[in-house]
Amino acid sequence: MKSSVILVAAGRGERLGLGIPKALAKVAGKTLLEHCLDVLRDLSPPLVVVVAPSDHLAQFEELVKPYGLPLKVVAGGDTRQASVKNGLAVVDTDNVLVHDAARCFAPRELFLSVESALDQAASVVPGIGVSDTIKEVSEGWVEKTLERAKLAAVQTPQGFQVSALRSAINAATVDFTDEAGLMEAFGHKTCVVAGSDRAFKVTTPADLDRAEVGQANFRTGIGTDAHKFSDSGELVLGCLSWPEYPRLEGHSDGDSVAHAIVDALLTAAGLGDIGSNFGVDRPQFKGASGEVFISETLSMIKSAGFEVSNIAVQIVGDKPKVGPRRAELEARLSEVVGAPVSVAATTTDGLGFLSDARGVAAVATALLKVRS
Ligand code: CTP
Ligand code: MG
Which CATH class is domain 218-370? Predict the structure, then answer.
């Protein structure tokens, strides 16, 4: 890309209401500013000017450092237009793209299509059709219904010839909400290219939720395990003791719930299964409790870049009677896993080895979130 980019990020984010500049709000663990810079790093423009709130310059400098882009941080002004003017002062290319840090998911293709339209116009904006009917309203009464087919919602990045924008912004005596509006007032025709749904502006808390859902990246996993009852001992199931039932057989404590959870976590992360991870080559886990298996699995999935969103378990068999202790079991497992674990139980309508209380089976599903 040959144009410089001015990233306006000096707003206060009043409508978002987090008490921090909006560009420092986080989605999927990263600030809006960093999401913008991820896209810009790909485009490698000759200069990125980050316009930051004057009282947060050091923090912004710190955040932009790892990006290794040709980059300047300058202080913003009281209005967006003043911020753009400050940014423009350090630009020395022929063309510039002005972009809202708040539109941090605008795709790279949008930057490229705006830039290429600058060959034929001094001012270029991305626009998308509106889905709501827009009316002019005055004191609670509609004055006019606008013709929807002719309307476009305008986004950023907006592209400009630097000399034309500089003349307009220096001569301006009133504030415009975007630079294309300013250029229009100074007689420049603005070309509209196709905008993108992904270039929406994060303005309110609902926009932040939308961004978070859009960025979420999940993996599901499944695990099953079954063990038969022995004649003695005390049952351990779901990391909980059930003294009125005998122990389950198995090379460990036979905790089929814990083992199903381990397989659900491992399959979600694509890390194999309980046999391939805790087999003979790791003798320290021989005879380990279900809780130890779960803890070790959690540290493995964490190292692989995942965190647990939730786990659901279904216990299958005539015994134990889960209902009376369901809440206790869910609390215990949620504590062990560090995320919500819910538990259901069912019998098998008199069929199979689970019908006459010879054993207990468990099925578990896990949902993992990919950490960014
Ligand atoms: N902006 C700026 N300088 C200002 C005002 C706004 O650089 N004085 C930037 C914002 O950081 C944002 C973009 O212009 O990236 C669009 O503005 P807006 O969505 O209104 O952001 P805020 O002004 O931060 O939000 P609010 O109006 O809710 O306070
Ligand atoms: Mg604002």
Answer: alpha beta
